[in-house]
Each structure stands twice: as C-alpha cells, then as structure tokens.
Amino acid sequence: MYPPLKSRSRKAGLPPGVLMPSDTKGGTVVTWVNYDQEKFTEKVYSVLPESFPIDKSSGINWIHVQGIAHSEIIESLGSQFKLHRLITEDIATPGQRPKVEEYDRYVFLIIRSLDYYEDHGGHVEDEQISIVLFDNLILSFQEKNNTLFDSVRERLRLKRGNMRKLSADYLAYALIDMIVDNYFILLDKIGGNLEKMEEHLTSYPKEHLVEDIHNLRREMIFIRRSIWPLREVISRLLRQESNHFSKATLFYLRDVYDHAIQVIDAIEMFRDLIAGMLDLYRSSVTQRLNEVIKILTIVSTVFCPLTFLTGLFGMNFSYMPGLQWQYGFFVAIGIMIIVALCMLGYIKHKKWL
Amino acid sequence: MYPPLKSRSRKAGLPPGVLMPSDTKGGTVVTWVNYDQEKFTEKVYSVLPESFPIDKSSGINWIHVQGIAHSEIIESLGSQFKLHRLITEDIATPGQRPKVEEYDRYVFLIIRSLDYYEDHGGHVEDEQISIVLFDNLILSFQEKNNTLFDSVRERLRLKRGNMRKLSADYLAYALIDMIVDNYFILLDKIGGNLEKMEEHLTSYPKEHLVEDIHNLRREMIFIRRSIWPLREVISRLLRQESNHFSKATLFYLRDVYDHAIQVIDAIEMFRDLIAGMLDLYRSSVTQRLNEVIKILTIVSTVFCPLTFLTGLFGMNFSYMPGLQWQYGFFVAIGIMIIVALCMLGYIKHKKWL
Amino acid sequence: MYPPLKSRSRKAGLPPGVLMPSDTKGGTVVTWVNYDQEKFTEKVYSVLPESFPIDKSSGINWIHVQGIAHSEIIESLGSQFKLHRLITEDIATPGQRPKVEEYDRYVFLIIRSLDYYEDHGGHVEDEQISIVLFDNLILSFQEKNNTLFDSVRERLRLKRGNMRKLSADYLAYALIDMIVDNYFILLDKIGGNLEKMEEHLTSYPKEHLVEDIHNLRREMIFIRRSIWPLREVISRLLRQESNHFSKATLFYLRDVYDHAIQVIDAIEMFRDLIAGMLDLYRSSVTQRLNEVIKILTIVSTVFCPLTFLTGLFGMNFSYMPGLQWQYGFFVAIGIMIIVALCMLGYIKHKKWL
Amino acid sequence: MYPPLKSRSRKAGLPPGVLMPSDTKGGTVVTWVNYDQEKFTEKVYSVLPESFPIDKSSGINWIHVQGIAHSEIIESLGSQFKLHRLITEDIATPGQRPKVEEYDRYVFLIIRSLDYYEDHGGHVEDEQISIVLFDNLILSFQEKNNTLFDSVRERLRLKRGNMRKLSADYLAYALIDMIVDNYFILLDKIGGNLEKMEEHLTSYPKEHLVEDIHNLRREMIFIRRSIWPLREVISRLLRQESNHFSKATLFYLRDVYDHAIQVIDAIEMFRDLIAGMLDLYRSSVTQRLNEVIKILTIVSTVFCPLTFLTGLFGMNFSYMPGLQWQYGFFVAIGIMIIVALCMLGYIKHKKWL
Amino acid sequence: MYPPLKSRSRKAGLPPGVLMPSDTKGGTVVTWVNYDQEKFTEKVYSVLPESFPIDKSSGINWIHVQGIAHSEIIESLGSQFKLHRLITEDIATPGQRPKVEEYDRYVFLIIRSLDYYEDHGGHVEDEQISIVLFDNLILSFQEKNNTLFDSVRERLRLKRGNMRKLSADYLAYALIDMIVDNYFILLDKIGGNLEKMEEHLTSYPKEHLVEDIHNLRREMIFIRRSIWPLREVISRLLRQESNHFSKATLFYLRDVYDHAIQVIDAIEMFRDLIAGMLDLYRSSVTQRLNEVIKILTIVSTVFCPLTFLTGLFGMNFSYMPGLQWQYGFFVAIGIMIIVALCMLGYIKHKKWL
C-alpha cells in the first residue's frame, strides 16, 4: 500500500546509493531510438549491450527502460553515462516524490504516472517515471512494463508533428506532456464516476455508496500527493537555472505548466465535491432517520392510549359501570375514536404528517 | 460536466497545437469593427474573408468571433495574425483557466464569463473569452454565440463614453470590465437566492431545501474556480511588464482589479454563509428529532405502566383480592390516575414539557 | 442585504465613472470647517456653494459631506478639486472595500464604519467613509447622515488635545482613529452578548438561542469582511510611499495600526468562541437526547415483560395451571416483581441510572 | 471578560494619549534597584519620589512598578524619562497585544504573563508587563501587584548567576525569560489536566466533563492569543535593528525565542489534543446511544409479538378453537417460545448481541 | 507525557545554563571512535577520562554519549570542547525541538529519533539526539541508552561504504540519515497498522477500534511535532551559511532532505487517511443506528394495531356484536391479517425492507 515507505524502510542502516532488488514484477525491456530529421532507427534489448555508440554527431538518442526490476541494468546505464549513484538509487527505488535536480551535464526528473481502474469508487495505480536529459540524449526509466510512451515513439517513427526536427529537450517535453495528458484522462474518468455517484445520492442512498465515496476520497489523497509536487517541478524548470531547455521548448513547457495547474485545480475541486457529497449523504440519512422515528412516534402515540382503554374495559372487576349496559361497547368504541382523532389532530398540529 | 478535462483528455498522445472540432454547438459569427474618433464601420461575416485590410493608419480594429465551433476560422485568424499555435489551441479548447501571457507583439488573455440560471439552488453556465491585444487591433473569441459584448459595440457605435477617443487597450479594458460587471449580476442573483433560502430555513425546513443549498454550494465551487485566478491575471497586467497597456488604461484596470477582489470577497462570504445555513439546518433537524422523541417517550412513560395495571386486573386468577370488591374498579382507576400523575410529574421535573 | 453587489450589478454595461442616484435615504449636509491655531470657523450648507475660497495660506480646511444621496454634490466637489472620476464614482457607490490609493496631489481612503444593534444575536449596520487628504484640505464623505464625526469637530472647536496646532494629516488620523475606536465599542457589545449567550447555554438551551448564535456568527462574517482589509490599508500608509503623512502623524497611525490588529484579533477570537459555543450546544443537545432515550428504554424494558406476563395470565384457556390455585395471583405478582428487579438490575449494571 | 475591548471602547472620541483610571484594583508599589558588580541597593516607595538620581555612572537601575491602578505614577515616570505619551497610554491600558517598538533612546516591550487556576477545566488569568529598556536603566510595569519578578530581584541581591556583572539588556532578558518560563509551568499544569480528562474519557464520560473540555478549549483560545505574538516580538529583537541589545545578550534572547516556539508548538498540540478528545467523546456518546437503542429494539422485538399472542388468546369470542382443548395452554406457551427464539435468532443474526 | 514542558517548567526562576539532573533512567556510556582510511580504534568509557587526546592530525574522532542521565559528563565534555553553556543545557534537557545553530567553530544540531510500539493503535517513544560537528570531531548525545547508532559504527569498523575515506561532516550526515531512515520504518509500521484498521472498519466496527484510531491520531500529532521542524533544519544546512559541510556531503544532505519531505508527506497523508477512517466509521455507526431503529419501527408499526385489536375483542362488555358469532374469531383473525398486510405494504412502500 505504501511502497515508498516499504522500500525505503528496508534500507535503514545501509550506506547511501545501494540498489535493492525491486519488488516490481515483470521483465525489463530497453529500447534505443536514434533519430534526426532524416533517419529513425529503433532497437529493442532485453539484455543491455556493452555500450551504446553515442557521440555528439549521431543525432538524438533516446534510451528507454521499461520495468526497473533488474537493478543491474540501471546500475550499468548509470556507470556508462556517469550518473551520481544517488540518482541511480532514486531511479531504482519506486515511490519517489516528483522532483527535479539540475547538474552541469544533465537534468534529472522524477514524475509519477497515474492510471485509474473503475471498481468500487475506483482505485489508482501509479508508477514512477525517471528522465535524465543530456545534450543529445535522453535516458528514461519506467517502473512498470507498459505501453505508456508507445504513442510518442509512434509519432517519432511516423514523423508526426515536428518532433523529429527538434532537439532532445523537446522530446523530454513530449514525455512529460504525455504523462500530464494522462492525468486528464484519469480525472475525466473520476469526474464521470463522481457524476454517477451524485445521481445515486439523490435517489435512494445505499451503504455501499458511502464506502465508494470514501474510497474515492482516499484515492484522491494519493493522487494529490503524486501530482501536487509536479507544479513546483515544472515551475523550477521554467525558471531556467540551467540551460538544458531551449527557449522554444520552454514555451511548450509553460503550456504543460498550465495543464498541471488545471489538473491540480480539478483535484481540489473534486475534493470539495466529494466533501459536499458526503455532507449531503449525511443530511439525507438524518432526514430518513427523522422520518422513521416520526412514524414510530405516530403509531405509538395513537395506539398506546387505545390499547390502554381496551385493557381498562378488559379488567375483571365484578362491579364495573357500563359493562352490562347495552350500548357500553359502542360508547367505548366511540371514546376510542375520539381519543385517536385527538392524537391525530395533535400530530397534524405538530406538522408531522 | 467537466469540459476542460474531457476536451483535454481526448488529446492525450497527440502533438501539441492540434485543434479538435469543438463540442460547442451553434454557428460562428465574425464581426469586424473599425473605428476612430470620426468613423465607425461594422461588418458581419459568417465566412471568414481572405484577409483583413488592417494597417497601422486604419484606426482601431476589433475582430470578434462568436462561437468557436468552426476551428478552421480560429486557425485562419491565427495564421493571418501570426499567433503561436499553442495560443490558437487554447482559444479553440474550452475550459481553460483564466490566464495572461505577454509576448512582444501582443498580450493574450483568457477570462471566463458566467451566467446564472435560477432553478433548484440555481446552476451556473460559463464560457471562455479569449482576447488578443495588438497595438491597434483586438481579436476576441467567445465560446458561445450570445450577446455578451453587444452593449460594448453599442457604446462604440453611439459614441457613448469616450471609448472612441482612446486606444485599443482601453477597448480591451472595456471587454474585461463587461465580464467582471456580469459577475456582480451573478452574485446579486445568488445573494437573492440565499436570502430566500435563509427565510425558508427559519420556517419549516424541507428536504428539498437542503438539496438546493448543497446544489448552490456546488455551484459556488465552480464559480470560485472560474473567478479566483482572474485576480492574479489582472494583477499581472498591472505590474506592467510589457507596454501593451497605457498608464491611463492601467488606472481603469486597477478599478477592475478592485472589483475582482470585491467579487472574490463576496464569493468567500457566500461560502461562509452557505456553510452557516447548512449548520443551522442541521441544528434545527436535530432539534425536531429531539422533540419527536420526547413525545414518544412521554407517551410510553405514561401509558406503559397504565397498560400493565389494566393487564394486571385483567388476569384470570380465581382468587384475586379486590376483584369482587364493590369499589375495586374505582380504586384501580384511582391508582392509575396517581401513577399517571407521578409520571407526568417526573416529566415535568425533567422539563420535557 | 448585499448592497455592493446590487449597486454594482446595476451598472453593468455602462461606461466607467457614471454616478447612479444612490439608494441611501436622507438629505445631504455639507460642513466646511476652517481652522488654525488661532481661529475656527464652521459653515453648514445644504446646497453646495459655487466654490470654496481655499488657498495655501488659509489654514486647514475640512469639508465634510454627510449622506451621499445627492450625487451631484459629490460630482461638483470632485470637479472643483479635480478628483479622478473613478474616485467620485467610488465615493458615490456604497459597499466599497476598504482601500487606499495614493496620488501626487492627494491620498484617497475608503474605510467602513460599523454600528451594532442588539436584537436577536444582534445585527450590524455599516456605512462607507471616504477621505481625500490634500496638503491643507480634507474632503470626507459619509454614507449616512449621522453624528459619527461630531466629537472630532467638538474637539477642534473646543481646542481639546493639540489637533488645532497640527496639520491636515493629523486630522485625517483623528477621523480614522474615531472609526477604529468605534470598532472597540462594537466588539465590546458583541463580547457582552456572547457572555450572555454562554450563560444561557450552560442553563437550559433553547432553540431560539441557536438561531441567535448563528445570527451572530453571520454578522461576524460581515464584520470581518468590513474590517479585515483595514489592516492592509493602514500598513500601506505606514510604508509611506507618498509624503502625505508627516513622520509625527505616522507615529499615531502606527498606534491605530496596533488597534486595528487588536480588533482583528478579537474578531478571530470571537469566531473561535462562537464555533466553540455551537459545538457545546450540539454536545448538550445530544446529551439530552441520550437521556430521553434512556428513560424510554428503561420504561419499555421494565414494563414490556410485565405486560406480557399479565397478558399470559389473562388468556382464556380452560385448562391453565395455577389459575384456580389459591395463591396463584400472589405467585404471579411475585414473579413479576422478580422480573422487574432483574430488569432494573440489568439497567443498573449498564449504568443508565 | 474582554478587558482590552472595554478599556479601549471607553476611550472612543477622546484625544490619544489620555490615561484613564484603570479598573485594576490594588495599590501601586514602586521598587528602585540600583546595582553593579560590587553594590546592590533596593528602595521601595508607595509614593513616587520627586526624581530618581540616575546618571550614566551610577551602575544599572531597575525601577519596577507593581500595579498600574495609580495612573499618575505612570504619567510622572513617563514625563521624568521622556516617554512618548502613546507609550504611557499603552502602559496604563491593560489588554494590549504583545509588541515591541524601537526608538533612539529606548526599546519598548509589552508581554503578557499568564497564570492558570485549576477549577472546572481551569481558567487563565493574564496580566500585562511593560518593559522600557534604556542604556543603563530599565522601567518595568506590572498590571497586578504580585510577586512575579521577586525571584529575579533575589538572584540580583544574592549575586546568583552572573547577572550583576552584565548590563541592563541582560536584566531585560532575565525578565522576559522569567515570563516565558512561567508559560512552561502553565502548560505543564494544563498538560496534567488534559491527561486527567483523557483518563476520565476512557472511563464513563459525564456531561460535566464535556463542559470542562470546552472550557479548557476556550481558555486555550485566550492563551494562544496572548502568547502567539510574542514569537514575532522576540524575532524582531533578534533582527537587531537598534543596538539596545548586546551580541552576548542576543545569544540568550535566541534561547528565549526557542522556548517561545516550543510554547507555541505545545499550544497547537494541545488544541489538536482537545479537538481529538471532543471527537472521541462524541464517538463514545453515539456509541452509547446506539447500545441503548439496541436494547430497546431487542426488548420490543421480542415482547411485542408475545404480547400480541397473549392478547389473541385472551379474546372473548365464544367459539375459539383450542381454548377448550386440554393442552391448548401448553401449545400456546410453546408457540410463544418458538416466536421468541426466532426473534432472538434474528437479533443474533444481525449481530446486536 | 509532556517531558519538555515538565523539565522546562522546573527551571523557572533559575539562571540560564543550569543543568538539572535528568529524569531519564539508565547509565551513561561514552564511546570514543578514532578513524581514518587506515586505522580504526574504539574505546568505551563509563567514567569520562580526564581529556581526549584529539589534535588536528589524529584523523576523525567521534565521541558518542549514550544516556544523558549523568549531566556532569555533558558538562565536562562541554567545558573540554568549549561549548556555550546554553548548548550543554539544551543537550541535557530532553524534549527540545529539532533545530540547528551555526557557530564559528562548530554546528550544533538537535534531532528527534522515534520508535513505534504496536499496542492499541500503537504508541511512539522519542528521544533527543544532539550532534556537535567540529572540523575533525563529532560529539553526539543520545537521550536513551540504546543501539541506534551501532550500525553506523559497524559500517565504520568494517569499512563498508566509503565513510572511512570521507571527512567528519559525512559522518554527521550518516547519523542524520540513520535517524531519518528510522522514520521510514516507523511510518511503514504505522501504515501497516492503518491497513489493518481499515480492514476492520469494513467488517463489523467495534468501539475498541475507534479508540485505537483516536489513539493513533494522537500519536500522529506527536510524530508530526517531532519531525516537522526537521525539514527546516536540513534546509538551513543546505543553504550553507557556514562552511562546516563540504559540497560533496551537501549533495548527500539534499538526499536526506528529499527523504524528510517524503516523511512529512506521508505524515500528512496518514492524517488525512485517519480523518477519513473516522468519518467512515461515523457513517457506518449512523447507518447501523438507522437500521436498528427501522426494525424497531417496523415491529411497533405491525404489532401495535394488532395488539389493540386483540385488546378490543378482549373487553368484557356484555353486549359486544360478533363475540357470540360462530365465525367471529376467524373474521377477527382475518381483520388482523389484513391490518398487518396493510402495515407491511406501507413499510414496503417506504422502502424500509
């Protein structure tokens, strides 16, 4: 449930920079894409090659690692491209907070990608994406082995958009943009779910529903925690302390920044809406309780006196006036009707019906 | 319900700057107004002309696009006036957050206009207004096809105020002012609605009412989200980083800024008031519950012992003392009256009546 | 209820600077006071004179307008002393937020004065005070026609304190101080009211009381909104960006600033106290509910089994053991007593009594 | 209850700097201590002497005023040492907010000293301490006539610590430290009280207890309001804008600053703890309510059908099957037992027992 | 319970810098470790030696004091290494807030180490760690006598990692890192506990559980208070105002800073989760209450009229129609069945079943 705590707590007492075998299941696939405006080559490895023939003149390179289970691959890439060992440790340890660190030779970014599955109130799965941006090289690491970045590669291969013409920092932007766009899909799904829940609320509310709402609220806490720091991350890139991003790309990054703020806005709004729904639910539950108790009170108020009267006339005293009287029964019934009407009148007066 | 999420989530994986056909219904009308202190010409197009004969000497131009359904019109205007394609994308994508972006040649503004319809607790409809301010030209885009800016055009045509004498930035101010003034109408209506609800609360509260209040509270969340960023937008214009606004117009903008703050103040106040009303509602519901249960308890407390006594004297034992006694019945009645009085006394003592 | 929204919403679509006839009832009285260390003259006008013979050498002048119903008077003063028309608009439009604006020739201030009337939970009435401070002239405008500033004029006339010796900015300080001092009176009254309510709470709580508390809470929202911005207003004057206030007067302004902070402190404290009282009220209501339900449960728990037993022995079967037995009745009574004692013992054990 | 409001509200309309006779009861005692490393003299006055023979060479002087009821003493001291009349007014007006004001010749400090009395939830009494620090002179004023600073004088007299060797600013530090140390005593007492309340909560909760907790919560509001500004006061002294504190003393002041933050931390923590206790109390009350209602429902559910059955067999129809039957009674009893067991089984199934 | 308040409140009125005998039980063990890349010597003292032969050339020295009960040891170390007496006082007084103070010769740090014991909702024990970092010397003080830093010493002894090659500031980092890593263990345990509680919540909720959740919530308040200031402490070290930390070590410190933020994030998340759980618990309790009351109402609603009817036919009037009729009983039964069905139909209609 709380992987960052787990993975980190197992490391207590070890020297920094030690990579632990990850809990994450699944193989590790490494994809090397080399492209410039003319050419596009793509190689897939399941075992890391000795070294990547990357030099200044070879166009733009993108080495993408899917699945971080095999920490030796990360370590090998780290040593080949001379990453600080704390960075390789961060890459190999799932559950990091989104952050950016700028160095002379590269920028290091961690972002969290989120997926939403619609079961009871829905649950969210996230994975950690690490990006290292060099001058003409991008290393990217993905916690799980899925197809998140396939469409970016597709756009490169098919020369869609003008990514092929642009430099490595634009590719970094495209990856970040991809992840942030996914947030919109996520929030769109949650928004739909919220709408459905809201409709259920106004009809008959079920216990099941509250648990779903609470569940969704809990997921929002996780989502918020994963996305919130992103704002600062991008804002820091925009402040342009290093020169890893060109001015043109910064323009696009500013667009991503706007999106990130929209996402955070929507998260806050959803939290407010969920709080409002729980409030409304509570109101309606109390309302129903009131109604049920009113019925109980009405029934008791009407029948208690009547039952008392029947008991009264059912007593076995030898000398009871009226019992022998011919119209006694009818008079008794009459009294009861009058009492019942009085009680009903009182209830009417109290506006319970 | 959450258009920004929807429209954005459909774009995931596409290159930036792609315009999607908008969901917004209705045609697109383009109005070109050209004016200076002497002349005023106005042309309405439903198909965009090849190009607008706009040059430095031709007075002030205002091209207003009502309805953004036909994205090709936005694209064509964008290319004619050399807008960045991310800007045309923003214009064509409803649901943007209010923002301002300053460039060398122009300032780009997004603001949200709000309308309030008074059904159950009321609901709010908003639309996105995009304004691009050049030196002697304003492009404005309106999400829906309505009469929002007709009164501004009217003032220009009839030479009311001194807008005709002033430059394009004053026109931009007039448009922003128009939108912010509409917020006051909106809030005035909501204020009236709140007052009505408050009156209902102090009289007999109905289930219906809570739902209305909750509904209004939800709408306030949307309103807040639409208006809140405006404050920063105008404050940024006031900080005057570019020179698109003259000093005289900045003075008027400061007035709009004051109004924006008043609007935000009022929104916060309304939120507080709504929270207070829900609180009061809850108090009164609990109060009523207490009263109902008191009645129930009083009835039970009085009649349970009496019914027991009648049952006692109704038992069929052959040998029961008093049954044969001539005054037995009356003594029994007496006992019952005493018991009832004791019970009522106890209730009185507890201050339940 | 929300005058700023109302007055502003009627202006939507009009050019800025247009003065609307105010809703405020009552006439407009203009008082011109001219004084220096030696002389003191005071003139009262109900119709504005052509012009005020004010020059640099004529001592200090204070033109005070009570009641802003006649907007032509404001307009005329505005044109005579060359105020920007947005300022005259602000002066004539009640419901402005406290603010300060510094210009070359003058400082413009809006402050809100508050009065408290002690009916159900009390209600607050506020009015807008506008002050324009020139070098040796003060214009002040008061929304309503009351005696707010009479004591200041009195002090001037009677040469109490050393106001007569000091410059116009000290008079401005005196006016602000007067308003802030009134806040203390207001809060003192509310404090007294709170104390009374608190006493009522610990004795028998009534429905009426909750409504009063809620009412007071709502008034606190209004008060807070009126006073809160004052802090920033004075703090801005203290930062001394213009030179309209002398160093000596700034010293006194700092005193007012301290008072403003004390007032805001007290408001926050009152809000906390009110929240606490509502909380305590809810606790005590729940407590009472519990008690009532306990009584109900005790009565039912004791008498249900007993009534069942009487019913049992009241059945009409021909062959029922014990009915004919001489001691049957007494044994039955005995059983009932035992059952009742068991039930009471159980209740005792549960600590309900 | 709210002395600052009261004392300030009485002054509305008066010129600034007027001293009102204080409400505070009790006499005024003035103590003059003169000391350096060798000598220590102490004189106690109940009537102020003409003047204090204080000059640069006379060592360090500490004039301490206990009780501010006699405002003429404050006024006389103020004029003798040339204090601004707003400062003498602040000294003579109880209920000021903690603050620091730095002048050329002296620093003026207001701090609030707190005492806690352990009655229902405890109540807090505070008094205002004003300190004026000159180069070799300290004036200190204490609202009430108690022994707060006796231990400091004792330390001076007995030459404990090295206060005698150090300058006047160290004495000022010692006074502030004394007051802040008292906060720890206060919070320690409250902490003990909280612990006791917490123990009571887990055992049987009484109505009385909630009121105590609420009472304590209210006192925390007052305490917070008195202490919170202290943080800023000391932090401002530390920023060392004037040179009234030597670098060595600033080191000690930083220690006091740490203590002040600890105190504020503890206050916030207590507020959280109190909120948690009230929450837990509410939970336990609801829990008890549930239990009581369960018992009620169980009793009703079991006995209502049984009583109905006895009533059924108690009807007086001539022709009722089974009444004459020899085993009728026992079969009826059997039916009742079966019904009762069914009901109990249902209750068991619902997990109410 | 609140040791800092207790220990501090006992000092009120004493001069600063006085060491009080600590409440902490247990002996004091001093360990002196001297190491460089080649050598490693370790000596354990229970009585402090006259002096430590530490000079510039002797490699790196680490003097670690376990247990602060014997304040004379702290005092002696303080005088030997010329610490300010306020620092020795801080070291000897448990319950300090985490802080950092930078001096010319050394940096002084206080951090709190936390341990979690899993009883009812768990409880947390914390201890105070003080670290003084000189150029080639570290003094560290631990409140309790436990094995917290043994693994660091182990790493030094076994030359694991490259700590032996690095300077004293890296050792300081290693100690801080050790403590922060322990927070992850703590939070991991709490996370597990939370999960277990959440599972219990969805199954049958017990009173016991709420108390555990409240207990955990209270512990979170303490944890938060202990860890929150750490963020600022490390951030201050990173701002590098002194030069006690080398650039390489700062890199590692930044890693610790990231971890501290993760820890604080997790704490906030846990607080949100706990609040959500309490909310869900309340919902489910109310839900259960509603169900119980529904059953009560159903039973009463069905049987009250029936019992009334049996009472009616059980009255002893001589002349009652139908009693003598042969089918009277069966008709009465029929009426009762119809009444019961009507009542059940009504209940069905209300959707209570």
Kindly list the characteristics that best describe this protein.
homopentamer; 353 residues; alpha+beta; Beta Polymerase, domain 2; 2 domains; 8 helices; 54% helix; 15% strand; rod-shaped
What would you note in describing this structure?
Five copies of one chain form a homopentamer. The first copy, chain A, has 353 residues and is α+β, with helices and mostly antiparallel strands. Chain A folds into two domains: 3-283, Beta Polymerase, domain 2, CATH 3.30.460.20; 314-349. The first copy, chain A, has eight helices and seven strands, in the order H-E-E-E-H-H-E-E-E-E-H-H-H-H-H. Chain A has helices at residues 3-9, 71-80, 85-92, 150-157, 168-202, 207-238, 247-313, 328-349; strands at 29-35, 40-45, 60-66, 99-102, 107-117, 123-133, 137-142. In chain A, a hairpin with a 3-residue loop joins strand 6 and strand 7 (137-142). In chain A, helix 6 packs antiparallel against helix 7 and helix 7 runs antiparallel to helix 8 (328-349). The first copy, chain A, starts with a helix and ends with a helix.
